Amino acid sequence: MKFLQYSVLPFLLVVVILSLSGATLAHSHGDFLHCLSLHLANSSTISKVIYMRNNPSYSSVLNASIQNTRFSTPATPKPLAIITPLKTSHIQSTIYCSKKHGLQLRIRSGGHDFEGLSYVSEVPFVILDLLNFRAVKVDTKNKVAWVQSGATLGELYYGIAAKTKTLAFPAGICPTVGIGGHFSGGGYGILVRKYGLAADHIIDAQLIDANGRILDRESMGEDLFWAIRGGGGNTFGIVLAWKIKLVPVPVVVTVFTVNKNLEQNVTKILHRWQYIAHKLPDDLYVDVGITKVSSSQTGKKTVQAAFIALFLGGVDELIPLVQERFPELGLAKENCSEMSWAESVLYLGRAPRTSLDMLLDKNVIPRTIFKAKSDYVKEPIPESGIEGFLSVFLEKEADFASMLMVPFGGKMEEIPENELPYPHRAGNLFQASYIVGWRKEENAESGKYISWIRRFYSYMATYVSKSPREAYFNYRDLDIGSNNISGYTSYQQASIWGFKYFKNNFKRLVQVKTMVDPMNFFRNEQSIPPLSSP
Fold first, then answer.
1. Domains in the chain, please, with CATH?
2. Model's pTM, two decimal places?
3. Residue of 310, 288, 279, 312 whose CA lies nearest to 409
């Protein structure tokens, strides 16, 4: 299935210009816009592709997919321009003109980067927004699909559900997350124990490299193809589209939610969950979401753990399984609902299930202000440790905080950690993520909330992975280290954060980067650096 249609002559012209331009820089940002205008087809195209700061639509286009509103304040650095390409030659031209005139290029898919790096930079930059590259083509006969990077997970799932009820794809549960960033960082979801990561099921891709060449799996080679499946976006090139292998699911799946709080012995139940969740049959996924809620005692707060599950089968099969393996949960039939796999995505994503059309709604998940961190847990946390972190949730700064515990085991236990850049496979009981949010009117006091999550993260250090303390790339966290904003970043400096995300795979990622983008054109505060660069 081909997405790319372009005339050969303009493409060759762009490649020749790119090869001759080198690192030529211009002092005027106006030269960049003039350069780009020259390479676009006509004036009507320009008005649909280039949004400058004086354009009435600039702010609406910029804010359209900013999911973390911590980065939509007046003080947030803004791009010189936003480019919304309509075809691949527009992307090639943007690469050429950005390189020629010394501007950083930030590539945005769904805008879910936790640190805003797909649309924020401290140096002069432009945004390349892939919002027009969102096609989804599903081939049920061969059980594959092509999906462009600007599409959302919801659009992918909707496209699959429109064709079949017995195929799915093992990626995340937030419908508004963009394909490009999610796949580039590995991507996990409610099918992780059954099928592994989204990246494990990518079988081809179409990419534009720093020289403007359009490559597929065969022409880019296996090293680069390996790197883009989990090594992070905005590092090796711009992935236009992904070919993915779909996975089988039953027509009917079952979901449930069981809530337990401090007054209901939640500490002991959580402790027990750690010994059970990763060993359950891989058709059953039970995660835990921890938040502060109102207590039954008037005016008081408690901490609640929501045990939320997906089972690839019917309720009559699920109930005896859980009652046997996890009787402490007290699961009853009234806690359960049967539905299709696509509906279960909305259910587990806490989105309205009025219609599958909600998968297409870009506002189905409210946008919030937040800071996030992540960990991997390899040994069960003792009850005393659980009591300790639950007590932190009773602090005032945790009113809009949450912790998610995602069980591994199953398929994740079978895949070697160097199979793809994402290394967190066998030996992990669960992944833990922490998020703290606050109200818009509290932005001036954001420091106290960020301090809270840093203290929480510090408390958890005793109970999580060590040497390195591992982290999930898609839950980006600049606290763990960053590159220089401009200029050279050494391997040693980048390895501070790189080994936490990628472990020993970081070394191979650096080698691939050095091979495909030695001048470090595609870069941000946590992009893979080449071994040497300007």
1. 8-129 (3.30.43.10), 136-248 (3.30.465.10), 263-305+368-463 (3.40.462.20), 481-534 (no CATH)
2. 0.93
3. 279
